[in-house]
Amino acid sequence: MPGIREGKQSSLRKALGAIKDTTTVSLAKVHSDYKELDIAIVKATNHYERPAKEKYIKAIFDAISASRPRADVAYCIHALSRRLSRTHNWAVALKTLMVLHRALREVDPAFVEEVINYGRSRRLMLNMSHFKDDSSLNTWDYSAWVRSYASFLEERLECFCVLKYDIEMTGPVRRLSL
């Protein structure tokens, strides 16, 4: 009987997560100055346990490109950080960390500097040490993975600060102007 109850709770949590995502998208359409970006962030980091659609990740990357005003980039970092800090769902947290990781690797070096500066002003950006999704037995393992991945990204940013270059960059070394 516990398996049936756990399955129903899991289904209910998934449905509630989908409703939360839909509500967040609807609110962004009405209240946000950055509605396209907010919608892309929610859709790229939704509660569904499948990879994010590339079109939403591309929309986020377009918003943080070097050609965009720094205020837009700062808003995107803030929105991703807010999404990460408010979730208790492992899939949302993992997708948000993956978007950040890909952005660190694939977007302009100025983005890395913006993330580091944001992290300096708000020490808890990637601090997921207390993250826990207790919706099922499996999610305890997923939560541990999320905490480890966040710690890895935090250490990677620290390496940027110390070494002044991207250690994961393929090809020529990408120097930072920190």
TrEMBL record:
Gene3D superfamilies: 1.25.40.90. The keyword Membrane applies. The keyword Membrane applies. InterPro entries: ANTH_dom (IPR011417), ANTH_N_plant (IPR048050), AP180-like (IPR045192), ENTH (IPR013809), ENTH_VHS (IPR008942). Keywords: Coated pit, Cytoplasmic vesicle, Endocytosis, Golgi apparatus, Membrane. Its main location: cytoplasm. Residues 29-167 form the ENTH domain. It holds the Pfam family ANTH. It is found in: Cytoplasmic vesicle, Clathrin-coated vesicle; Golgi apparatus; Membrane, Clathrin-coated pit. This is ENTH domain-containing protein.
